[in-house]
Specification:
This protein is α/β, with parallel strands linked by helices. The chain has two domains: 151 residues, Quinone Oxidoreductase, Chain A, domain 1 (Alpha-Beta Complex); 165 residues, NAD(P)-binding Rossmann-like Domain (Rossmann fold). It contains ten helices and 15 strands. The strands form three sheets. Strands 3, 4, 5, 6, 7, 14 and 15 form a seven-stranded mixed sheet that branches. Strands 10-9-8-11-12-13 form a six-stranded parallel sheet, with helices on both faces. Strands 1-2 form a two-stranded antiparallel sheet. Helix 3 crosses helix 4 and helix 3 packs across helix 9. It is globular, with a radius of gyration of 20 Å. GO terms for molecular function: oxidoreductase activity, acting on NAD(P)H. Belongs to the zinc-containing alcohol dehydrogenase family. It comes from Amorphotheca resinae ATCC 22711.
């Protein structure tokens, strides 16, 4: 089979390699479309060259002996474990059964390829890090939420999931992608968009003004899907005492958050982590954690797609399949993409 290996640069080489075999708890998927994420060019700069693709949409080819949910021929999407072998930049990829989910007939492989990593990152940030109410415990209390970077895939999924939890007003910070963000928010519930291109001071003042107009004295939750260019610094100026901010990248080492702000990092890798027996949670007898959260929410994504309240991200199919991967990752590196995910039709690879 064909497999693309990404190295620093980014530089991409395509190799002929054997089709992998799933272990007892994994599925082998014939990849129809692979999605991409900014980490796909970043991670190979920190580690050795590897197949860095993690968004899989395709057809189950083989399942491990312990797998009961899937069978050969099933249409699925899956989140490949970051850093593991056999990623999605290939004709066949491996995923754990618990990070694989069925696709409704009406959901295309193209749309599905935009979902796994970014949507799960959004879910973990909202519900595990920020502690907001899940969709099955939707709130009826006004709960303002700042989403910084609303046109990004993670930010857009955060908006969609927040709306499923009836979290409003949403104060969304965006730039070029504002027309797209406008399709996601609900102005009738006080949602609004703030343009970060007006400068940091304007962002801070407009967030405060938005809260004032809504008759809300404090905001306590913020999802920073950018985590660069002063985003978390701006947010920290408006969060109330005991406020929480979660980020997708670490803050600058020299930056100190205000004492009244609780900050955290949302890493999607948590859904591949068991609770260690010698950890505080393990010693307390806790058995379930982010791995089980991932299992549940991937299945909720499938249900949301079927029912129509959840959807994928806008996408652009890159010509040439994996042959177009290097140029696409270079565009991501250069920030040339807004409100769109690059996806790759694997059979177009020559």
């Amino acid at each position: 089979m064909k497999e693309a290996i990404v190295a620093a640069g980014p530089k991409v080489t395509i190799h002929d390699v054997p089709v992998p075999k799933p272990n007892a708890d994994q599925v082998l998927i014939k990849v129809v479309y692979s999605g991409s994420n900014p980490k796909d060019w970043k991670r190979p700069t920190w580690f050795s060259p590897h197949n860095s693709g993690d968004d899989i949409a395709g057809i189950v080819e083989e399942v491990g002996e312990n797998v009961v949910e899937f069978k050969k021929g099933d249409r699925v999407a899956a989140y490949h474990e970051i850093g593991a072998d056999h990623g999605s930049f290939a004709e066949y990829a491996i995923a754990w059964a618990y990070t694989t989910f069925h696709l409704p007939k009406k959901t295309s492989f193209e749309e599905a390829a935009t979902i796994p990593l970014a949507a799960m990152t959004a879910a973990l940030g909202l519900y595990v890090r920020l502690g907001l109410p899940e969709p099955w415990h939707a709130t009826t209390t006004p709960t303002p939420l700042i989403v910084y970077g609303g046109a990004s895939a993670v930010g857009a999924y955060a908006i969609k999931l927040a709306r499923a939890s009836n979290i409003h007003p949403l104060i969304v910070v965006a730039g070029r992608g504002q027309p797209f963000v406008e399709t996601l928010i609900d102005r009738s519930k006080g949602d609004t968009i703030i343009d970060y291109r007006q400068g940091d001071e304007a962002v801070v003042s407009q967030i405060k003004e938005t809260l004032k107009k809504a008759g809300i004295s404090e905001v306590y939750h913020a999802y920073d899907a950018v985590s660069e260019h002063n985003s978390y610094k701006n947010i920290s100026q408006v969060l109330g005492k005991g406020g929480k901010i979660t980020m997708v990248l670490p803050a600058e080492k020299t930056y100190k958050f205000p004492d009244h702000v609780e900050n955290s990092l949302t890493l999607v890798t948590g859904v591949h982590t068991d609770i260690a027996a010698d950890s505080p949670a393990g010693k307390a007898g806790i058995k379930t954690g982010e791995k089980d959260f991932g299992f549940a929410f991937f299945r909720l994504f499938a249900r949301g797609l079927q029912e129509g309240w959840f959807s994928g991200h806008p996408y652009e199919v890159v010509p040439g399949g994996l042959n177009g991967l290097e140029k696409a990752l270079t565009n991501l590196q250069n920030g040339a993409v807004s409100a769109t995910k690059y996806i790759f039709k694997i059979e177009d690879t020559k």
